[in-house]
Amino acid sequence: VRRFDLIVIGTGSAGTSIATTCRAAGWSVGIVDELPFGGTCVLRGCDPKKVLVGAGELVDWSRRMNAKGVVTKPLQIDWPALMRFKRTFTEPAPAQRQRSYDEAGIVSFHGRARFVDRSQLRIDGEIVEAKHFAIASGAKPVPLEIPGEEHVITSTQFLELDRLPSSIVFIGGGYISMEFAHVAARAGVKAFVLDRGDRPLKGFDADLVARLIELTRAAGIDVSVKTAVLGVERRNGEFVVRARQGDKEATFPAALVIHGGGRVPDIDELDLQAAGVARTEKGIQVNAFLQSTSNPAVYAAGDAADGGGLPLTPVAGTEGETVAQNLLRGNHRTLDFSGLTSIVYTIPALASVGLGEVQAKERGISYRCSTGDSSEWYTYRRVNAASQYKIVLEAAGGTILGAHFLGPFAEELANLFALAIRAKISKNVMNETLFGYPTAASDIEYLLADGPPAS
Ligand SMILES: Cc1cc2nc3c(=O)[nH]c(=O)nc-3n(C[C@H](O)[C@H](O)[C@H](O)COP(=O)(O)OP(=O)(O)OC[C@H]3O[C@@H](n4cnc5c(N)ncnc54)[C@H](O)[C@@H]3O)c2cc1C
User: Fold this and answer.
1) Phi and psi for 71 in degrees, rounded to 5?
2) DSSP string covering 64-87, please?
């Protein structure tokens, strides 16, 4: 039996950060993954996705500039070539990750891990033993539990498609469906998004989402709300998605059906009971130090942990670092999610940081919003794009509580406000900062003041 100070399950952002930091402090560390090393973000999530989004943005920008001085034949996405470009990012990643483990002296295992008892793990046929374990096993698509589920492909398979079909139905109105639908539409696919709730993107500002839905429909994407998928059938080489809309039934034929219906922690197969590790619906049950509440030798981080953060890469990274510090020096570090930025890479993007208006209200904070449609501001008229914003401010005083943007520069504006919220930079300092002009940031004084002065 091989023995380690620490074994980490999962080679994504969370697991890699735990393994690397503990190994650098001199611990003997093993790490295991059943899939090629690198985790979701690098291989099957953020990184490959944004390569595709980049191409979609270019198509959209060129269309917006038609009749505004840019005349081209319609720009088109060559999907197989774009996928080849995408693979230049994903294909080298597992070997790079393996090399970095080897160089650090981290022992890596390929295989599926399961607990045998409180100190041992089975990795396929091999038993390994450790003083500590870190569960960083990520998330998986939630089972849809509908007839015909076997016809539905996942986000991972979408990111590997060599050819695009003529039409796609996306089940669920979360960020994955919305982002993929926007890319697919720019590549010439007829896309349908079916959401069973009142609106897609529930965690985001309702006003900005309403505008995004308008823009989504204008891009040719069919968005249906209050549409609960009942099942998927295969008919004449095509698929038909059956859904309930109120007391009626609707059908959506499509060449491909994609699961965008949410993800859950990937911890069902770990035999947690054997190690006495308690869980909730949202992941491994942990205390404020990300330590299992029922087995002190076990910590958890990232999408697999119920640590109170969103299932996003920066959260996985910071949780991983927190686990490593607590393992090495005893429990002392807790999490601070202030200024966490969450971005939907639709075209245009929707980006959100800090408190939403609803959250401020729920917390009984006395707040005010600076909000408006900025499409006619120079920054957006120049690129012929729609834009809208909402900044949540303390009612008295200059504290910025949250910032929400829809438009071409949304993601970087949100990042600037993430810094402001994190570092408690006041509205006045933001206003006085001499941002380069003309840029989206040079509008910040207007964003904080209900728009530019009337001209
Ligand atoms: C399509 C898509 C797009 C996304 N886009 C973004 C984005 O733009 N921005 C953002 O911040 N986040 C995005 N995310 C979310 C982000 O990818 C995750 O939050 C992040 O990767 C979580 O990292 P992690 O380390 O917790 O887990 P992961 O990176 O998922 O790593 C977990 C690893 O554990 C392995 N594993 C699981 N169980 C076992 C087992 N029993 N034995 C061995 N190995 C096991 C898995 O194979 C996996 O490789 C996206 C996710 C998806 C699916």
Assistant:
1) -115, 115
2) HTTTTT---SPP---HHHHHHHHH
pTM: 0.96
From first to last of its 455 residues, what are the pLDDT tens digits of the chain?
999 999 999 999 999 999 999 999 999 999 999 999 999 999 999 999 999 999 999 999 999 999 899 987 778 999 999 999 999 999 999 999 999 999 999 999 999 999 999 999 999 999 999 999 999 999 999 999 999 999 999 999 999 999 999 999 999 999 999 999 999 999 999 999 999 999 999 999 999 999 999 999 999 999 999 999 999 999 988 999 999 999 999 999 999 999 998 999 999 999 999 999 999 999 999 999 999 999 999 999 999 999 999 999 999 999 999 999 999 999 999 999 999 999 999 999 999 999 999 999 999 999 999 999 999 999 999 999 999 999 999 998 889 999 999 999 999 999 999 999 999 999 999 999 999 999 999 999 999 987 677 65
CB within 8 Å of 107: residues ≥ 6 apart:
2, 4, 28, 29, 30, 31, 101
Rounded to whole angstroms, how far apart are CA atoms 91 and 86? 9
Closest by alpha carbon to 40, among 178, 135, 159, 138?
138
In the reported structure, the alpha carbon of residue 384 is separated from the centroid of ligand 1 by a whole-number distance in angstroms of 36
Q: Taking the alpha carbons of 286, 288, 289, 290 in that order, is the dihedral positive or negative?
A: positive
Please, are residues 39 and 16 in contact by the beta-carbon 8 Å criterion?
Answer: yes
| Nearest-5° Cα angle at 388, 212 to 195 | 20
The helix/strand/coil state of 103 is helix
Whether the CA torsion 128, 134, 140, 146 is positive or negative: it is positive
423 burial (CB, 10 Å; 0-12 / 13-18 / 19+) is: exposed
How many Cα atoms within 13 Å fall on the side-chain side of residue 155? 28
CB 132 within 8 A of CB 30: no
Q: Is 33 in the pocket of ligand 1 (CB under 6 A)?
A: yes
Show the tokens assigned to 168.
Answer: 């796609």
250 lines ligand 1 (CB under 6 A): no
CA of 45 to the centre of ligand 1 (A): 7
Backbone angles phi, psi at 251, to 5 degrees: -125, 145
Long-range contacts, 428-431 (Cβ 8 Å, 24+) = 428/398, 430/400
Asked whether 174 lines ligand 1 (CB < 6 A), one says no
Q: Which helix (H) or strand (E) holds 97?
A: helix 93-104
Q: In angstroms, rounded to a whole number, what is the distance separating the alpha carbons of residues 290 and 307?
A: 6
Strand partners, 113: 123
Q: How far is the CA of 334 from the centre of ligand 1 (A)?
A: 22
